[in-house]
Amino acid sequence: MADIDNLVENLRREISICEDQLKSLKAQLAATESRKPPTKNGELPHSPESAPESADSKVSQWPLLSEEYERYGRQLIMPEVGLKGQLHLKGSSILIIGIGGLGCPAVAYLAGAGVGTIGLCDGDYVERSNLHRQILHNTYKIGISKVDSAIDYLKALNPNVTYCTDTPASRYLISDTCVLLGKPLVSASALQTNGQLNVFNFPARPVGDLTGGPCYRCMFPKPPPPESVLTCGEGGILGPVVGVMGVLQALEAIKLIASGNIHCRLTDQGYSDGERVSDDSQAPQGLIFSAYSSTPFRSFKMRRRRGNCAACSSHAIITRESLRSGSMDYAQFCGAISPISALSTDERVSAEEYAAIERSKGVNLSRNKSSGYGHILIDTRDKVQFELCSLKDSINVPYAEISASDASPHGVEELEEQEEHEKEADWLQMIRKMPSDAPIYVVCRLGNDSQLAVRKLKELGLDESGTRQIRDIKGGLKAWRDKVDHNFPNY
Amino acid sequence: MAEAEKSEAQDVITLKVEFTGGLEMLFSNIKEHKLSLPAKDEQDKATTVNYLVDYLCKKVMKDRRKELFVQDGTVRPGILVLINDADWELEGEGSYELQPEDNILFVSTLHGG
Ligand SMILES: [Zn+2]
C-alpha cells in the first residue's frame, strides 16, 4: 500500500513539474514572440497568433516591451520607480543566496518587479517541513532541489527574467565577497518570532574608505559561539515572520536599484555613487522585527565601518586572492557543533534496546517508592515539544532546567548557602523522591542534549555514587521513530 | 543596598533595559526590565554601559549560563547593543555614561532563514 502511495505521489510530482515546464515554455514563447521585430515592409510577422498585436509590434521605439508596460504598469506609475527605475531594475542583477523562508518571498517579488537577471543559490532539497513558509515550493516538489523548484515557479511568474544558479555559502563569506566586489548586501534573518534586516556595505565604497557602509564583519567581527546559535529546525519559525523579512529584503533591494544610486563607479578622480544623494552624516538604518513585542518594528542607526575591519578597512586581510585560493576556512572560523559524543558506550542504550527494556519492565514510578520496580524515563526537550508527542510515562525536564541547576558537590557551606537563597529545583526534588535504585534513561529529540543531561545528572549525584545506572537513548526520538515506532510523529 | 539607593533618589538613574532575539530567555523570559541604577559607581564615576552589563550579570540574570551573555569581560560576540536605538559604537560603546530614562536594548543576532 505504502509503495503504491509513493508511486502515486511521485507520478503526481512529475506531472506537476511537466505542467510547470509547459507553462513556462508557453510563457517564454509568448514573451519571445512579442519581441519579434516588424518585417521590412511593415508587414505583420507570420505567426497568426501575433496578428491582433499588430499595433504594439510596430512600436519598437518604446524602451520597454508592450508586455512589460502592462506587467509593470502599477509600479511604473509610481514616482519612486517610473520608467527610469524600471530600466534600472531590468538592467540589474541580483544574487539570492538561500531559497528558504526569506529567499522565497524575496525572489518572488524581485522577479515580479522585473529585476533582469536573478541568480539562485541553495544546495538543499525541498522537505515537507519547509512548506509552511517557503512559498515557492509545494507538496509535489518534495525531494527536488530548491533551485529547480524555485525556477519552475519563477519562470511561470515572470519569463522575462534570466535565472542562474550557484552553490551556497556562509554569511561572512557572502559579506566579504560583496565588499570585494563593491556590491551592497541586503541581509536578513529570522527565528521564532523575531527578524532582523540590514543593508551592509552601502554605499559600497572601496576597501579602506571609512565613509562606506559597514560590512557584516564591522558589526560582528567575531562569530558567536556555536552553542549560542539556534537554527529554524531547533528553535522553530513562524511562516509570516520570515515572510515579512523576505518581503522587506525585496523592498530594500528595489529601493536601492530603482533609485539608480547603487553603482559605485571607479573614475580617474576617484569614484562616485551615482548621483550621490545620500547624506554621509546619516548612518544607515537597521531593522529589528519582534512580532510579539509592543513595538514590533524598530529601526536603529547602524555603526560606521570599523577602522580595523578584516574585510573593508585599510587593514583588511581578506582579498580576492585569499577568497579564490580558498585559504580562508569559513566553517572553522565560525566553529561548528559536531555531533556530541560525551558518554562511554556503557552509558548509552540504542532505541531498540530501550524498547526491549520498556517491554520487559514497564515504566512505573509510583507503585513502590522503596523498591526498584521499573525505571525512570526523562525527556529533556522543551515543554512545547514534549506536548506534541512523547514516549509513554516519560517525565519532562527541559535541558535548560537541568543545565541551569547547580552542579557543585554538596559541601556544608554550599548547602547552607543554598538553603538560604534557594532550594533545590522542583524537578530534582521530584526525582530524589523516586526509588533511588530505579535506573534513569534520558531521551531528547536527536540524542545530543540527552548525553549532556546524563553527565549533569551524575554531577548532581543522582547516580548514587555509581550504584544507579543513568543512560541516554542513542539518537533520541529520531532513532526511536526510525528503528522502533515508525508512527511516532516526525516534526 | 536597595535601601541606600531609594533614600537618595537624585543619585539614581532609571533605565529601560530590553532583551530580544532570544536573549530574553536568559533573563527569566522578560523582555522589558525597568531598572534603577546608582548614578555613580564605587569610584564616584558616572555609571556606564559596562557597569550595567556587570549589574545585569550579577543582579538580574538568574540563568547560570553567563557565557551566553558575557565573554572576556564584555558582551559576547553576536550580541548587538543599542543605546537609544543606535549601535553603541556610535555612543562610545561600554564607556557610554548612562543618562536618566535611557533605553538600552540587547539583541542576539539570528541566523535562521
Ligand atoms: Zn567591515
UniProtKB/TrEMBL annotation, chain A:
Pathway: Cofactor biosynthesis; molybdopterin biosynthesis; tRNA modification; 5-methoxycarbonylmethyl-2-thiouridine-tRNA biosynthesis
Residue positions of the active site: C232, C444
Cofactor(s) this protein requires: Zn(2+)
Region called Disordered, residue ranges: 28-59
GO molecular function: ATP binding; metal ion binding; molybdopterin-synthase adenylyltransferase activity; molybdopterin-synthase sulfurtransferase activity; thiosulfate-cyanide sulfurtransferase activity; URM1 activating enzyme activity
Enzyme Commission numbers on file: 2.7.7.80, 2.8.1.11
Enzyme class: transferase
Residues that hold ATP according to the record: G101, D122, S129, N130, L131, H132, R133, K146, D166, T167
Main location: cytoplasm
GO biological-process terms attached to the record: Mo-molybdopterin cofactor biosynthetic process; protein urmylation; tRNA wobble position uridine thiolation
GO cellular component terms listed in the entry, alphabetical order: cytosol
Pfam families: Rhodanese (PF00581), ThiF (PF00899)
Function: Plays a central role in 2-thiolation of mcm(5)S(2)U at tRNA wobble positions of cytosolic tRNA(Lys), tRNA(Glu) and tRNA(Gln). Also essential during biosynthesis of the molybdenum cofactor. Acts by mediating the C-terminal thiocarboxylation of sulfur carriers urm1 and MOCS2A. Its N-terminus first activates urm1 and MOCS2A as acyl-adenylates (-COAMP), then the persulfide sulfur on the catalytic cysteine is transferred to urm1 and MOCS2A to form thiocarboxylation (-COSH) of their C-terminus. Plays a central role in 2-thiolation of mcm(5)S(2)U at tRNA wobble positions of cytosolic tRNA(Lys), tRNA(Glu) and tRNA(Gln). Also essential during biosynthesis of the molybdenum cofactor. Acts by mediating the C-terminal thiocarboxylation of sulfur carriers urm1 and mocs2a. Its N-terminus first activates urm1 and mocs2a as acyl-adenylates (-COAMP), then the persulfide sulfur on the catalytic cysteine is transferred to urm1 and mocs2a to form thiocarboxylation (-COSH) of their C-terminus.
Protein's recorded name: Adenylyltransferase and sulfurtransferase uba4
TrEMBL record, chain B:
One matching Pfam family: Urm1
Localisation per UniProt entry: Cytoplasm
UniProt cross-references to SUPFAM superfamilies, sorted A to Z: MoaD/ThiS
Residue numbers of 1-thioglycine PTMs: G113
Post-translational modification: C-terminal thiocarboxylation occurs in 2 steps, it is first acyl-adenylated (-COAMP) via the hesA/moeB/thiF part of UBA4, then thiocarboxylated (-COSH) via the rhodanese domain of UBA4.
InterPro entries documented for this protein: Beta-grasp_dom_sf, Mopterin_synth/thiamin_S_b, Urm1
Any single GO CC term annotated in Swiss-Prot or TrEMBL for this entry: cytosol
Alphabetized UniProt keyword annotations: Cytoplasm, Isopeptide bond, tRNA processing, Ubl conjugation pathway
Crosslink feature (Glycyl lysine isopeptide (Gly-Lys) (interchain with K-? in acceptor proteins)) location: G113
One GO biological process term: tRNA thio-modification
Listed CDD domains: Ubl_Urm1
Pathway where it operates: tRNA modification; 5-methoxycarbonylmethyl-2-thiouridine-tRNA biosynthesis
Functional summary from the UniProt entry: Acts as a sulfur carrier required for 2-thiolation of mcm(5)S(2)U at tRNA wobble positions of cytosolic tRNA(Lys), tRNA(Glu) and tRNA(Gln). Serves as sulfur donor in tRNA 2-thiolation reaction by being thiocarboxylated (-COSH) at its C-terminus by the MOCS3 homolog UBA4. The sulfur is then transferred to tRNA to form 2-thiolation of mcm(5)S(2)U. Prior mcm(5) tRNA modification by the elongator complex is required for 2-thiolation. Also acts as a ubiquitin-like protein (UBL) that is covalently conjugated via an isopeptide bond to lysine residues of target proteins such as AHP1.
Similarity section: Belongs to the URM1 family.
Listed name of the protein: Ubiquitin-related modifier 1
Organism, scientific name: Rhizodiscina lignyota
